[in-house]
Write a structure and sequence with these properties.
This protein is of the alpha/beta class. The protein has helices spanning 15-29, 39-51, 57-66, 71-80, 91-104, 120-132, 146-154, 159-163, 168-174, 190-193, 227-239, and strands at 110-114, 138-143, 156-157, 175-177, 186-188, 196-200, 213-217, 241-248, 262-264, 271-274. The radius of gyration is 20 Å and the shape is globular. It binds S-adenosylmethionine. The site of S-adenosylmethionine (SAM) has 24 residues, from loops.
Length: 286
Amino acid sequence: MTEPASVPTGGVVPSGAHAVFAALLEARTGQSLGHNRAWRLETALCPMMREHDCDTLDALALLLLSGRHPGIADRAVEVLLNGETSFFRDPGVFAMVADAIAASAAGRPRLWCAGCSTGQEPLSLAMLFAERGGDMPEIVATDWSDPAIARARAGRFNQFEIQRGLSAARMIRWFDEAGGAHAGDWIAKPELLRPIQFRRANLVFDGPPAGQFDAIFCRNVLLYFAAPARRTVLTRLAGALKPGGVLVLGAGETVIGQSDAFQPSGRYRGLYEPVPRPWAPRAAAG
Ligand SMILES: C[S@@+](CC[C@H](N)C(=O)[O-])C[C@H]1O[C@@H](n2cnc3c(N)ncnc32)[C@H](O)[C@@H]1O
């Protein structure tokens, strides 16, 4: 039996530790760990506290600041990120984006999943386009998290993950049962993974992938960002879209009041289009 995730601080997050981990997370990823999300610190960092024999979050923060364990910072950021995802999350959006692309894309469509976590979103797109027939898009899928990208690249999902959002028919059509050490898991078929390039990239500090895109999915990522980082990223995303391209945000997200780089699409409800700026430099074609 695993130990219960006890809360050594009794539910009260020391403000010193909160400040240290919030600054680390924001410096590395642009994400803001507001006081309303402080509870995540304890839940997420509890195993690290045990590993490093720290009784309190303050002690773990001091160990981080001491620089004696260089890996501690990366690991803390990793566990503080929320990688929640599922297949065909908000299913109506996928069909709408496929329609938008069919109406505007010339040649092979290019899609970017920015903040793709463990890959369910780009794989859902690959399934959808394969089932519709026609040109398979080129899909670039990026995330800050190395382990998430490694898992996405492997295309392997456990029983719980595979059932979230995927019908039995799609599961059988597009995935094979794993054997050996991974028995019980399901692995995406090679033809599903082939159009997807998975890469580690930081939305705040790295430029967008080369070339321009017909659609960018950046769902459930920017809501955790501090306002300046969110604005910077939205401006960058606008520059990475082809004319007529669309931005897809999460169901609870909007660009309204966040950035003047995008406006709600007049054609597709819930999608966003870049505000035309004829004087802006164009990204290099790729
Ligand atoms: C909640 S998941 C969303 C996954 C998927 N887009 C979806 O909606 O199902 C957010 C993802 O954003 C990634 N992320 C957070 N900050 C990032 C950054 N600065 N650069 C790239 N990815 C980031 C996290 O690692 C995580 O995998």
